[in-house]
Write a structure and sequence with these properties.
The complex is a heterodimer of chains A (119) and B (257). Chain A has 119 residues and is α+β, with helices and mostly antiparallel strands. Chain A has 4 helices and 2 strands. Helices cover 48% and strands 13% of the residues of chain A. In chain A, a hairpin with a 7-residue loop joins strand 1 and strand 2. In chain B, 79% of the residues lie in helices and 2% in strands. The chains are: A alpha+beta (119), B mainly alpha (257).
């Protein structure tokens, strides 16, 4: 993963950045947020999530925040992850790419079920 | 209450699995991953859903992550592994050059003139040296102290030496006796692998290996297989030295999370 904000992102990284775009979250919080935002279509296991978090930290997209209690879970102190400036730019660039693609599809009048009959 | 016990049991097993991650990854994410596993298990339990299927699926998913991270770890430190390829090439170059330039001590007994290796000889020694080097890199990455690296080095050299001596001349006069040394290597490898090459577990494995080696030597002595007691004593001392160094490394190391 390069430290360029305009480099394309993997689906897992995109979903994690989206989950962290509104507030800092711990690992389980990220998983649940990704699941909610994808309407249950994207479910990450711990191996995928923390592997992605490690690579994202190395690329400077996110950073570890404080270790603190989650008021909703009140058991153990947890490490929270937060977006960096580079992470926000990378998310913005990826969303712009998606918007461009959707704009092209709209221009071509391709609807969401246009290929429903295709084999 | 019963589900709490089951969750605790699965978390302990999951913690053991996490020890297979590269050290740097484990130290950073081991605890958060175990926490997340517990959160997911509680969520399942609160929804009155079984834990076994969840645990198996998560263990499988995490195992894939372990393979991925270990491969990534190897490719981020290619020089550590590449140097063993070069060492192996250098070791194999010696007999190759000796054969090319007809250098060596003529051996009328075997009918050969100097060094005369076949393809199988090169393949066997290549696999042995490269395997020992890669094993050293992997096992020594499980600890961070000089004692740990020294312990791994001694154990790997002892294992390599034992195989080499047995392939070359044999530790005993009678062939079936030499096969018993395979058991010594099995004890060393399986013992250290079960303990994931962590210092404390590897220490126990090395002491067990020393014991197994001593037992083999005694059996050979009693049954008249003609053991080479001096060589056996050397190898037993090497296993014990490795075990002691592993123990020192385990005492000195910070408890892993």
């Amino acid at each position: 993963m390069k430290n360029r904000p305009d480099a394309p992102l993997t689906p897992a990284v995109l979903h994690i950045l989206l989950a962290l775009s509104t507030e800092e979250r711990h690992g389980y919080g990220i998983m649940k947020q990704v699941e909610r935002e994808s309407r249950g279509k994207v479910r990450m296991g711990p191996g995928t999530l923390y592997g992605s978090l490690g690579r994202m930290m190395a690329a400077g997209l996110i950073r570890e925040g404080d270790r603190k209690l989650d008021p909703a879970m009140d058991d153990e102190r947890r490490i929270y992850y937060t977006l960096t400036g580079l992470g926000r730019k990378a998310l913005q660039a990826e969303l712009d790419r998606y918007r461009d693609v959707v704009a092209v599809a709209t221009e071509k009048r391709i609807s969401s079920n246009a290929f429903a009959d295709a084999v | 209450m019963q589900s709490d016990r089951a969750i605790g049991r699965y978390r302990r097993l999951y913690g053991r699995l996490l020890r297979l991650y590269p050290r740097s990854f484990r130290e950073r994410f081991g605890e958060p991953m175990a926490q997340t596993f517990t959160d997911l298990a509680r969520e399942r339990s609160d929804a009155n859903r079984g834990l076994l299927g969840f645990a198996l699926a998560t263990f499988a998913e995490t195992s894939a992550g372990i393979i991925r991270e270990n491969l990534a770890h190897m490719t981020t430190q290619p020089m550590n592994y590449l140097r063993w390829v070069l060492v192996t090439a250098a070791v194999l170059a010696l007999p190759a050059l000796a054969m090319a330039f007809n250098i060596g001590v003529p051996d009328p007994g075997s009918g050969t003139d100097g060094v005369n290796w076949g393809p199988m000889d090169f393949a066997t020694i290549g696999v042995l040296v490269l395997g020992a080097g890669l094993l050293f890199e992997y096992a020594s990455s499980r600890g961070r102290s000089v004692e740990h690296r020294a312990a791994v080095g001694i154990a790997v050299l002892a294992g390599l030496g034992l195989v080499w001596v047995n392939l070359a001349v044999g530790m005993m006069d009678v062939e079936p006796g030499n096969s018993m040394y395979v058991l010594v290597l099995v004890v060393a490898l399986i013992g250290a692998a079960i303990g994931r090459f962590e210092p404390r577990e590897a220490s126990i494995a090395m002491f067990a290996t020393a014991g197994a080696h001593a037992v083999v030597a005694v059996i050979a002595l009693v049954t008249g297989l003609g053991p080479t007691l001096l060589a056996d004593a050397f190898f037993v001392a090497a296993w014990v030295a490795s075990g002691l160094l592993f123990r020192r490394a385990s005492v000195a190391s910070v408890p892993s999370r």
